[in-house]
Prior knowledge:
Layout: H1 2-17, H2 21-38, E1 46-47, H3 53-63, H4 65-84, H5 96-118, H6 127-139, H7 143-159, H8 171-185, H9 212-238, H10 248-265, E2 271-272, H11 274-282, H12 289-304, H13 314-327, H14 331-339, H15 343-355, H16 358-377, E3 380-386, E4 392-400, H17 405-412, E5 420-430, H18 432-447, E6 451-456, H19 461-467, H20 504-527, E7 535-540, H21 547-550, E8 558-563, H22 578-589, E9 595-601, H23 605-612, H24 621-626, H25 631-639, H26 649-671, H27 675-682, E10 687-694, E11 699-703, E12 715-716
Parallel strand pairs: 4-5, 5-6, 7-8, 7-9, 9-10
Antiparallel strand pairs: 1-2, 3-4, 10-11, 11-12
Helix pairs in contact: 1-2, 1-3, 1-8, 1-12, 1-13, 2-10, 2-12, 3-4, 4-9, 4-10, 5-6, 5-13, 5-15, 5-16, 7-8, 7-13, 9-10, 9-11, 15-16, 17-18, 25-26
Amino acid sequence: MVFLIAVPLSLGIAMAAGAPLASGLIAAVAGGIVAGWLGGSSVQVSGPTASLVVVIAGLVQTYGWRATCVITILAGGLQVLLGAFKAARAALAVSPAVVHGMLAGVGIIIALAQLHVVLGGSPQHSALANLLQLPGQILDMHGHKVMVGVLTVTVLLVWERLPKHVRTVPAPLAALLVAAGTAWVFNWSVTRIDLTGAITSWAPPELPAGDWQNIAGAVLLIALVAGAESLLCCVAVDGMHRGSRADLDRELTGQGVANMVSGVLGGLPVAGVIVRSTTNLRAGARTHWSAILHGVWVLLFALCLGWTIKFIPMEALAALLVFIGIRTISLGHVRKVHGHNEVPVYLVTLTGVILVGLAEGVLAGLALAALLALRRLTRVTVDKREEPNGRVHATVSGSLTFIGVPRLTQELRTIPAGAVVDLDLNIDFMDNAAFDAIHSWRMDHERLGGAVTIDELHDEWYTLAASGARMSPAKSPPKPAGHWWLPWTHRRRPDAITTAIDCQLTRGADEFHRRTAPLVRPIFTQLATKQQPTHLFITCADSRLVPSLITSSGPGDLFTVRNIGNLVPCAGSDPGDDSVAAAIEYATRVLTVHTITVCGHSGCGAMAALLSGPAATAELPQLQRWLRHGDPSLTMLEQGAEAGRERTEGEHDSALDALCRLNVQQQLENLRTYRKVDEQVETGQLKLVGLYFDIASARVHVVPPRTPGVPAATTPVPPE
């Protein structure tokens, strides 16, 4: 399948580059066999690429074809060197907007040049000249040649709409067969392709004569463009199959060797091609042998059936290139770059490639992409709001550099003179210019009767700068915005707390809307219609125990039940409790969770009440009745203790700690009294886990199932 596509495309690319037509077939053979054998991708197919047509055409006109082959060899050697130094990943840093803009620009250049061939003329020296000469070429059309071109494009457009069994023949091959057959039947006057002796009349490459700086620039350009296209194609293809991932450094080395072989044999430069690679996958490719055999078929065709190419009209190949050139302008790519506000990069690259040159256009696109990235990285946001008590709360976010000083200064100066200001610095970097701006504003504001309290949410950039300490040049590692994991009383310094505690829930909701909601909204949008938790998490109602914090879980992960003492009443127990039983029933029968976890904690008030006896809950009848479900845990503890001996205070603490652990084990046993839970545990569908959270050390321990006669023990959760 790939071979049938590779032959017409290779011939067309060679024709567009002004190279010998056989060079396209040689490159297809070298790319298929050598790059397929030595490369790091199992399914990528390499060969001549349209992205280098403009460069090759210029080199052929300047140095001649044989000298261009030497440049190809040197470019391959440079790729091998880059692969040996593990530089392949650097190619992925190129903005996709630059790559897509470059390919679209090259496609337009090819389409404009080959359109003249379709119309019976000759392409001009530049895209602008081709565009200006196009009206005159249209008025002087050559009938049969135009008809072949129109017929070729028509077949390409219609072929994708035909039944699937017809589309087994690739569209490019079908278009050329139809055009060649029609021209032969009606004896149209067209330009024929002749490869007689092209394969056997090989001549060795020769060193280019000229300025070595320009030659070195050409070598670098071919190596980088071909390498980047191959690696980006490699990454794209990896996302289309489930096989082994590509080794990018090995792929770059394989591409380099293939280019060296292609240059020695008189072929075009080689790169990984997305059209052939995608076709390879769709045809069922699994290993690198598919790419190798495609090269073998091309070689056999060139040696044994090369004479059939003379039936292909040159205008049909040109029409194929016009079609391919236009198809490189993908609306999908434009939409993607538009979604990331990178359309200017795309347009600058495209325009530069068309009007100036490939290298100049790519460099212009890279420069603009770098400037836009710098602007985004140094963007500063200042959020100000006035509190009910008259204080002004301001939050500065971003990387504070000299670029953001004008915006920062403008926003800070809008704060009324004499106001009490709480300034949060949610920043990961601050240079000297930004520090001077903030510090000068603070001095001026306090001199006019105001007050400023600065709270730094990341590293203390401002505090260190104010103390004269040496600043680190590196940015702070990213941390979650805000102090959401802290208690309300720890969010700000004590002298800044002026709002009553009963307003904290409202303030917390406001902080969630400003800082957290924009980050988690896409997740909640997905969870809005259905929940699919994997764990039922039964734990204590103690305010110091936060399940999502100690398990690093997020929305949708835990189906949570909280009660005093993290108790699980036995099935059918008295007094009964439908709340916990209903949660267990729903979790195992509807949500089909994989794990049920019981999590206890140190210093549990419910366990302390059990230890102290009924008198501790005499005035709390509802709590006393509920704690009866904890009596089996207390019995387990007393079975290992000396009856009647009065405990000291220290022994009471030790007993409380042991009871909290034993209680977790007892509740795991209580879960087995539910028939559905017991059945799923026996079949391996459900796992029961015990956890114990030591509050003082902030450590989570695993509590193993109880072994009769052995005291409770815990195992710390190992770090990942």
